[in-house]
Amino acid sequence: MAEREYQVCTNCVMDTSDSQIVFDENGRCDHCKNFYKNILPNWHPDEQGEAELNEIVVKIKAYGKGKKYDCIIGLSGGVDSSYLAYYAVRKLGLKPLFFAVDTGWTLNVAVENIEKIVKGLNASLYTEIVNWNEMRDLQLAYFKAQVPYQDTPQDHVIFASLYKYAVKNKIKYVLTGGNHSTECIREPNEWVYCSDLMQIKDIHKKHGKSYLKTLPLCGMFKYRLFYRYFKGMKVVKPLDLIPYTKEKAIKTLQDEFDWQPYEQKHFESLFTRFYEGYWLIKKFGYDKRRAYFSSLIVTGQKTREEALEELKSPPYSEKQATEDLEYVAKKLSLTKDEFVKLMDQPNKTWKDYKNSFWMISLAIKMARILGLERKQYR
Fold it and tell me: pTM value?
């Protein structure tokens, strides 16, 4: 099969590193088409969104009357969750419990940002500390599996912990920082495969060593059916209902809390910084900044020319990346040489392991029909 000729979208910066990308006669990609056709017409960070958010807030406050907390917010120290925390307290008058998950990789600057937000808002924080031996074993299993989406174990555990805590403590409303403004262009499945519990278990069974006795896990049925319909958990994304831009959010956080920004999106975690900024690019040729920047381009927060110029340089310095590689290897109980050998082994994809893709695809298709899902999945 002939290698595909390189092409980059004429509207955003998604390119043929996404093997399934499709371009129209004008060179515009299907990611952009999905945004303009499915997301933008149904996204209302305006009066309509404000009215919808006000209705939700009334329900949250009624639910929380007489209670210490009326909702829970996952707080990573990143831009989106930090701004959501500020907005929920200062603008909406809510009483959230902030929830952080210590997976063993949070950078000191992120810890400091979380502390500044919590203290500045005179709020409460609960930190879930996961079992490091189990976390390490699952992450190492993913490296041995040779799949590109190495952040799946950490992401899955963070959200599973949040939902489990909310349900256990009967906090009905879970507010998250997910938003169209900075995340409307979804990374292709080959870059970031969905959080599939069947696949997580299969990869761990094949490449892990210990039992996952305490690590929080949450499959699709538990999250979408049991938690929501039997336990009444409601997930709310307020940032989709207000005018929200990354630059203004950062300025607000800096002015209000002396919050410190990161080099790139999601770089509050050392593991994610290394995985996205070095490992994923070097081993697979996937630069997740293309999706991040493309989201900012189509929402008018960055020009295509600015994005292309930034993409000429690596996400962070080679010196820092080398230091991170040595740190990650040591923390995973590997030598540097052993870790480099893992990088050099043949690449694999989610298709090489058991998965629930057909089931997840069906659920997403139904959600799209019902208007509950707008992002593009292939």
Answer: 0.92
